[in-house]
Design a protein that fits this description.
This protein is mainly β. The protein contains no helices and 16 strands.
Length: 187
């Protein structure tokens, strides 16, 4: 059992028979009345995010979860297939459990969150940044760089990312997997 003082981002809670992960939290101490913690929690089964308020000092049921390294192998009709990097066991995961499935490349390292008691996969997180090769981009026009203009470009996985005008076909870029946005060009 934990209390609201133990709340942090990424903490997994068990509430009403469901597993939730804390996305954001804010300790609030109003001038009148008791303190409370306002949170934004994500249901790990269906991916929905809701707001929930806990009274200060309330007891929380913390779920035991483990983050295990895996390597993406391939995708077929049953889902996305991954191999555990330590035990070499294979597992498959549905697309809804992956935070950015359109940015997955074969052989890419990911972390899969498992419920420690039932050994069921809960979610799959890509690294914060991945390197992608631009397979198609409209050519930039000289002189269009006065503003922060962006253009759509297609990366090697088929996803579309907005990039600056100076990025051309064949360039390698870093993409933020949390926001699907361009980060920087890779040499």
């Amino acid at each position: 059992m934990a209390t609201t003082a133990d709340i942090r981002n990424g903490l997994c809670l068990e509430m009403d028979g469901e597993l939730y992960s804390i996305v954001e939290f804010l300790h609030v101490k109003p001038g009148k009345g008791g303190a409370f913690v306002r949170t934004k929690i994500k249901n790990l089964k269906n991916g929905r995010t809701i707001q929930h308020t806990f009274n200060s000092g309330a007891k929380l049921d913390v779920a035991r979860v483990e983050n295990r390294p895996h390597q993406y192998i391939y995708k077929d009709d049953s889902g996305y297939h991954f191999m555990n990097s330590q035990t070499f066991e294979q597992t498959f995961i549905e697309e809804s459990m992956i935070n950015a499935p359109d940015l997955l490349k074969e052989g890419q390292e990911v972390h899969i969150l498992y419920h420690a008691d039932t050994e069921t996969p809960l979610s799959c997180e890509l690294p914060p940044f991945v390197e992608m090769l631009i397979t198609y981009a409209e050519p930039g026009v000289k002189g269009d760089t006065a503003t922060n203009a962006m253009k759509p470009a297609t990366v090697e996985t088929g996803a579309t990312v907005n990039v600056p005008l100076f990025i051309n076909e064949g360039d390698k870029i870093k993409v933020d997997t949390r926001t699907h946005s361009y980060s920087e060009r890779v040499k």
